[in-house]
Amino acid sequence: MKSELMMIKEKITGVDVSYYFICHRKLWLFSHNIQMENENQNVQIGRQLHEDRYKRQKKDITILDTINIDFLKKEEQIVIHEIKKSKKMEKAHKYQMYFYLDFLLLHGVEAKGELNYPLLNQKVSLELTDEIRLELEEIYREIKTIVSGALPDKKKKNYCTKCAYYEFCFCDEI
Ligand code: SF4
Questions:
Q1: pLDDT by residue (tens digit) across 127-159?
Q2: Which CATH number goes with the domain that contains 134?
Q3: Is the CB of 166 under 6 A from ligand 1?
């Protein structure tokens, strides 16, 4: 029989983990299928960057019909790559990658992660540790609590104007 944590994990996505660090309201809206990402210019810029860079790599890999990663390389170990535009949300990017590494480990694959910031000419290498796995368990539980509760109140942050939900949250101010 599956543990409670396992059942929670199966419903969580990398985007959920990323939004947990960005904004709990955004996490709630996304997890309730209220999605506005296609219309957002910021998202379109990210998508263009994703198409224009690393052209020699086979991109948009889906693993076990569950997680979608930008590309992977087989070096001494499998390395999962995610292409990001800027480091403003670096913590969210890191934990999204840890989620992927945790998912793979759960299925018997030990992998490392690399965040690629081509516009900054930088990369960040990541490895999953026991401490981070414990931290992830707590994050998974908190995500479940947030998405099964009421819509969190809006709190204005400096990146709200770039968020796909900005008009939804602050239409009275536009
Ligand atoms: S606009 Fe701001 S408060 Fe609303 S979902 Fe986006 S980040 Fe959260």
A1: 999 999 999 999 999 999 999 999 999 999 999
A2: 3.90.320
A3: yes
Which protein residue has the closest C-alpha to ligand 1 atom 7? 160
Measured by CA distance, the residue closest to atom 4 of ligand 1 is: 169
The number of distinct structural domains making up the chain is: 1
Range of the domain at 66: 4-173
58-85: pLDDT as tens digits:
778 888 878 888 888 888 889 999 999 8
**Which residue, among 66, 126, 59, 65, has the nearest Cα to 98 in the 3D structure?**
126
159 Cα to the center of ligand 1, angstroms = 8
Average pLDDT in the chain: 89
Q: What is the identity of the amino acid at 79?
A: V
Residue 150: partners with Cβ closer than 8 Å, 6 or more residues away: none
Choosing from 163, 172, 173, 174 the residue with most ligand 1 atoms within 8 A of its CB, the one to mutate for a pocket test is 163
